[in-house]
Amino acid sequence: MTERRLLVVGASLAGLRAVEAARKSGFGGPITLIGAEPHLPYDRPPLSKEFLDGAELSSFRSEEVLRDELGTELVLGTAATALDTAARTVRAGDREYGYDALVIATGATARTLPGTGGLDGVHTLRSRDDAIAVRRALDAGARTVVVGAGFIGSEVASAARKRGLEVTIVEVLPTPLVRAVGETMGRACAALHLRNGTDLRCGVGVAALEGDGRVERVRLTDGTVLPADLVVAGIGAVPATSWLVGAGLRLDDGIVCDETLFTGVPGVYAAGDVARWHNPAFGRHMRLEHWTSAAEQGAVAARNAIDPANAKPYSTVPYFWSDWYDSRIQFVGVPATEEVRVVGGDPGGDRFVALYRQGDRLAGALTLNGQAQIMKYRGLIMRSASWAEGLEFAERRRAALETA
Amino acid sequence: MRIIVDRDRCTGLGICESLASEYFEVDDDGELILLREDASEEDLEALRAAIDGCPTEALRLES
A317 to chain B: which residues are within 8 Å by CB? Predict the structure, then answer.
């Protein structure tokens, strides 16, 4: 048993948690952690949040902790390029790394704007290096254009406005965040931009980025020209699976896994943004790009990979948060579209709670500045609460607030 | 075992509340309230999940 080797590909949150969980569960064999970026594992949510406001960057664990306490061989700055499931090896750089148990946690790659290569001042925001470049531009007072009114783009716009910079968000869809929170609530979130002086333009695309060596203007499909020193594209991410094509894993918007994060190929498990697994809590496959699921899946995948006979399912009620201006948006569950009902506050104001129904079940909850409420709904959804129970709970909260 | 909250790190995200609601609750201002600080044996698993689940690494257990 101690002779077995654990290989973890992907050195971000899920990969780190895989290593830590393996050691916590008593795994004594060799562990190798391969990461494409040269940095030690670091936390990504702060990159588009407090880091842009001036906070320091840090790593999750020091090199000494990883190497000595966790007994992990670190192979950083080296992207994995091939998996051979018959030989049980992963190629990275000019070496092959053997495994008995493999956790793939290569994450997702930010989509880039087509045809914009070569211009300085154009960025995505996924890695530490991206964030440093964006912050440097904001420090220099850049006129900022954000492409895509999703969470990352909205956080960048918030950071620019906090500094008093001019910022425009260009969103090709008529309403932002429809896929994440639905149409009505997407509109309610977007209203935050308008209240905070961000110029949000929906239903218009980017025709061209123009400039001599570095970006100077963004030309929109309606003919508008926006002067810009910094362009940040927040147009989503695609699972980093290109290195796995032909390896024999099932790829379909991520690595398809069962409820234990098993890929179906002996010894191979997946975790984090790259994994599309069967979530028993909702009875269907999902791929999440959330902190919480990446952390938890990393741990579960490692434990299952080293002890497949006792593999446990990973079931979760998805959770994400986003910080815009001085507001916090939080979402739990899934944004079912059958019915969305505002049960507290005012969707045009600074605080609200909205619930999402699927059949007779409470499926999701969204809050704006509703920190005291959101996790109570997560609890209800974890217990498979009915829609009626969700509404009753909301009613009790409202009554309690009125008498308080 | 005692639960320690690092107030400099906590931002009231509340994942702990959804995993161990007898111990943690976030108030309307987004502040985390520690409902009880002594960890009982039967809750250790849930508390460890809450500690591991904290995105700001603001929680720990101390004997």
Answer: 18
**Residue A299: its chain B contacts at CB < 8 A?**
52
ipTM for this prediction: 0.94
With CB atoms and an 8 Å threshold, state whether B18 touches A319: yes
CA A149 and chain centroid, separation? 15
Chain B residues with beta carbon closer than 8 angstroms to that of A381: none
Q: How many domains does one find in chain A?
A: 3
> Is the same domain home to A225 and A190?
yes
Residues A383 and A246 in one domain: no
Encode chain A (404 residues) as per-residue pLDDT tens digits. Answer: 447 999 999 999 999 999 999 999 999 999 999 999 999 999 999 999 999 999 999 999 999 999 999 999 999 999 999 999 999 999 999 999 999 999 999 999 999 998 777 899 999 999 999 999 999 999 999 999 999 999 999 999 999 999 999 999 999 999 999 999 999 999 999 999 999 999 999 999 999 999 999 999 999 999 999 999 999 999 999 999 999 999 999 999 999 999 999 999 999 999 999 999 999 999 999 999 999 999 999 999 999 999 999 999 999 999 999 999 999 999 999 999 899 999 999 998 999 999 999 999 999 999 999 999 999 999 999 999 999 999 999 999 988 888 77
Residues A100, A88 contacting (CB under 8 angstroms): yes
**Structure letter (DSSP) for residue A45:** G
Query: Computed over its alpha carbons, how large is the radius of gyration of chain B?
Result: 10
DSSP secondary structure code for residue A163 in this structure: T
How is chain A split among helix, strand and coil, in percent rounded to 5? 30, 30, 40
pTM of this prediction?
0.96
Chain A residues with CB under 8 Å of a chain B CB are: 17, 43, 45, 291-292, 295-296, 299, 317, 319, 321, 328, 330, 332, 369, 371-372, 374-376, 378-379, 382
Instruction: For residue B26, give the nearest of A319, A332, A372 by CB distance.
Output: A372
CATH assignment of the domain containing A341? 3.30.390.30
Domain containing residue A225? 112-233
